[in-house]
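Severity: low
Component: inverse-folding endpoint
Summary: output formatting inconsistent between runs
Steps to reproduce: submit the following structure tokens with default settings.
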């Protein structure tokens, strides 16, 4: 399994490098990004490329096993851990937001609702709340965790958290992203499946997108890989 690990690590390093390069050269994305149909197209193309790469790497071994595409050992445990992650992220968000302003750094979610562009926003939201979590979980908690698990459970959890944070190309938001990624990796380790991770990740993004246009100033933290 050495080759898949090398390929996955190389892919994550390249993606993180491109993400940081884009962030430092172009800065924050425009606030109306999620009101544009071009964003939908760009995200779908990006996630299709990521999916193809991850699917190909996983094919060098037992693909279903490496991607953890199996029924979780316990949905009850998954629910409890998922709620724990939610509580932990809320607490960490309110703790870090006054100091690091992670939502401002990412600058993805808009501050106001624009009814004229509702269709584009809803479609972007579906991509971010469904497509993004599926692809990202297969990439990190699926393939990544499986390849790193040989070095120990907690080593894999920590490394997945770090790589997930780095892949977003953010600095101030890194602690929040790494914590979320590690929490999902812990969930994956406990229930031996990537499906609950997709559900938790998708729910988090959906709530963040809803709160962003609800008319009340809240910490905005949509955790997904942005196009490079």
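Observed output (run 2 of 3):
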């Amino acid at each position: 399994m050495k080759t898949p690990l090398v390929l996955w690590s190389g892919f994550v390093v390249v993606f993180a490098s491109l993400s940081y390069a884009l962030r430092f050269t172009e800065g924050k994305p425009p606030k109306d990004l999620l009101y544009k149909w071009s964003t939908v197209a760009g995200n779908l193309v990006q996630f299709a490329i990521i999916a193809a790469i991850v699917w190909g790497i996983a094919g060098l071994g037992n693909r279903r096993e490496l991607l953890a595409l199996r029924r979780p050992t316990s949905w009850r445990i998954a629910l409890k851990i998922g709620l724990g992650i939610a509580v932990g992220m809320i607490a960490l968000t309110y703790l870090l937001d006054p100091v690091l302003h992670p939502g401002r750094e990412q600058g993805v979610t808009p501050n106001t609702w624009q009814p004229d562009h509702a269709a584009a926003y809803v479609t972007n939201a579906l991509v971010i709340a469904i497509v993004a979590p599926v692809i990202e979980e297969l990439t990190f908690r699926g393939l990544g965790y499986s390849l790193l698990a040989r070095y120990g459970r907690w080593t894999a959890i920590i490394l997945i958290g770090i790589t997930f944070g780095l892949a977003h190309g953010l600095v101030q938001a890194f602690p929040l992203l790494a914590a979320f990624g590690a929490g999902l990796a812990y969930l994956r380790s406990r229930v031996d499946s990537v499906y609950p991770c997709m559900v938790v990740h998708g729910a988090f993004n959906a709530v963040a997108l809803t709160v962003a246009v609800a008319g009340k100033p809240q910490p905005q933290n949509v955790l997904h890989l942005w196009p490079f």
